[in-house]
Amino acid sequence: MQRRGALFGMPGGSGGRKMAAGDIGELLVPHMPTIRVPRSGDRVYKNECAFSYDSPNSEGGLYVCMNTFLAFGREHVERHFRKTGQSVYMHLKRHVREKVRGASGGALPKRRNSKIFLDLDTDDDLNSDDYEYEDEAKLVIFPDHYEIALPNIEELPALVTIACDAVLSSKSPYRKQDPDTWENELPVSKYANNLTQLDNGVRIPPSGWKCARCDLRENLWLNLTDGSVLCGKWFFDSSGGNGHALEHYRDMGYPLAVKLGTITPDGADVYSFQEEEPVLDPHLAKHLAHFGIDMLHMHGTENGLQDNDIKPRVSEWEVIQESGTKLKPMYGPGYTGLKNLGNSCYLSSVMQAIFSIPEFQRAYVGNLPRIFDYSPLDPTQDFNTQMTKLGHGLLSGQYSKPPVKSELIEQVMKEEHKPQQNGISPRMFKAFVSKSHPEFSSNRQQDAQEFFLHLVNLVERNRIGSENPSDVFRFLVEERIQCCQTRKVRYTERVDYLMQLPVAMEAATNKDELIAYELTRREAEANRRPLPELVRAKIPFSACLQAFSEPENVDDFWSSALQAKSAGVKTSRFASFPEYLVVQIKKFTFGLDWVPKKFDVSIDMPDLLDINHLRARGLQPGEEELPDISPPIVIPDDSKDRLMNQLIDPSDIDESSVMQLAEMGFPLEACRKAVYFTGNMGAEVAFNWIIVHMEEPDFAEPLTMPGYGGAASAGASVFGATGLDNQPPEEIVAIITSMGFQRNQAIQALRATNNNLERALDWIFSHPEFEEDSDFVIEMENNANANIISEAKPEGPRVKDGSGTYELFAFISHMGTSTMSGHYICHIKKEGRWVIYNDHKVCASERPPKDLGYMYFYHRIPS
Predict the structure, then answer these.
(1) Is 823 a catalytic residue?
(2) Which residue in 379, 382, 765, 802 has its CB near the most CB atoms, within 10 A?
(3) What is the pLDDT of residues 586-638, one digit of tens each?
(4) Is 544 within any annotated ligand binding site?
(5) Which of 345, 483, 826, 843 is catalytic?
(6) Running DSSP on this structure, what letter comes out for residue 530?
(7) 279 contacts: CB under 8 Å, gap ≥ 6
(8) What residue ranges define each of the domains in the chain, with the CATH number in brackets?
(9) Is 211 annotated as a binding residue?
(10) Which residue among the candidates 145, 823, 827, 859 is catalytic per the annotation?
């Protein structure tokens, strides 16, 4: 270990052992099978450690594995070596030096050529006229830390030289996140120029859409030929659908469709069924105008106004960002900013709020050694690893240090500049959490509320053993639906993670001022005079809370008492109160002309919030329940054949419908059964099945069918439902036990993962509650006739109920006309004072604009 200390004790690892020229080839011979040349599709990480935010700019540089092409900082490369046995790494280091000054104070000409071959961002705090950069690359062989300087064409084997050149010249694995490349990757549809549009009088309203075939109200696509609104499939969008848009194309041959809800002044999501890929439509505004959607007007509003016309919106930006106020920068643990990757502020704001919550800090950063030690072989593709990395980056203070005092600059800058990294880039985290999601994987602005729910879903799916920090947000909503004709009621419960408050515009307390402002504004526009100072509607929070609790009409309500559709009203109450209450103000809507509109309002959000009066009370004396009868299932003609043969192969279950139902809070196995027994006819039909069968004792039991002899899915057993007669290979068991795990644990993990080594390691880490039970394992090994290990009956949704009294500790604000444009920032109360997080800038807040927020985070006050 002395050699390791020598290497790591000096910047750039210059203390490593250097080889004589004749020994290099001999030294590399045993490692040649592990050195690979990057192939097309390989992700080569040269800019960022998989476990930290170290880079070649960091003091210890970066180590790139020459087999997996993962990168590791100085503190983490040994872990990868111990876990994989991979010995050869390329060490990358960028040196930053102050230029030598002449007698007159100017920089002297360089006495040697700088080598800059790494594609890195330069430090914004450094003036390029004052500093020079030099990149260094060398091979390091573990465990003895031998160093081979690069380039070294004469002594290195040809394969090694080719591999090194390929690594150094490889492109960034985050190419799709770069602002200049994302949009250009979409091809222009060959049908866009001469698209036929039927003159059938169809006009699309700005809201209230539903699929023309199945009444689904999300993931809807507008066919640009005939104006049909139909649902998509799972591969269009993660929210799922029944595929009626695709079926319509097969029936009619109309090639292009646009996704409703994505239309902005900058474009929309367009899909070509014929070309089978997302495309660009250069004439999209014209094609949408055919159906009454006025994108041209939206463009004029967004880009064509004069400076004096946009003053009200500029004012909003100034107020929320506290412009004009000298803000004091904050440094240290918990005061680290996140660099903007180009419209990534929605993610940054949410993650700052999330990691200000102790439960998330403990679950990830508190378990950092265990999570990192048992991370999968590719930690860049593991949610828990990347969450822990981000949390540590934000909370450690390692990447948020105050600038060096002026009197120390001369001493520090004598030979080599050691830049202080302020703020971290969430590029790897964003790439993982957004992959396969069509919106978050783009470079466009997104809705912070939608990302919050997406993140909660990922936390739920990747829970660490029995620990699930998102439990703090989960609560139960009691929905009471009353048939207006019979007065009978039905009570149901559902899971939710945030409270959505409507904006009660009619309750504005300054209506006279608003009317006067509107008249003055119109007069100024007509006469081309400067607009008056903006007057915002002042809405009492109590009015918004009242609007939330009022009954609302239920569209297409089917009364089981009347056995027919009828008028119905619904009221919602809290069946439980969460530990942390997230409140969203519903500020965004569409006008009749399809122009996105934002309620630019001021709401007096309270620091202390009491919603105990919204506690659900259940069935009341004198109330009569609606009969427990399900509405008749209307089977589309194209699905009757499928219904006649309901026993589909379990591998064909529509997982998109399963996940839609699971996200409502129903047990996963119940969702799989519902989709299976309704013949893959979609989430809505499966939901009806759930309502009918949810009281049955085996409701949440694993799916079993005649002819399949047991569980229908890998999720049906806590151990993966793998046959027990499949004895794990002894050599794989030996590999796991050599890492320090028990033999019984290794056998159990391999059986649970069909003898997959990497998945077995993940299984062991995700089951920390495992206890050695020799009798149990002996019974497993000796009982060749056993089929599966039964899963304990799942419990209902876990909630942390308590008092409904809360205190505000964070809020996220939005600036701009739409959630798909503009900017997000976050304010968090820390150590008794408010702090503003505006991308990488973190400052003490002087005037936190609590009345202009979009999402508010409250924590429960202990009773």
Answers:
(1) yes
(2) 379
(3) 988 766 556 667 888 999 999 999 999 999 999 999 999 999 887 776 555 54
(4) no
(5) 345
(6) P
(7) 186, 187, 188, 189, 192, 256, 270, 271, 272
(8) 24-98+130-167 (3.30.40.10), 184-295 (3.30.40.10), 322-470+803-858 (3.90.70.10), 474-576 (no CATH), 629-635+648-702 (1.10.8.10), 728-767 (1.10.8.10)
(9) yes
(10) 823
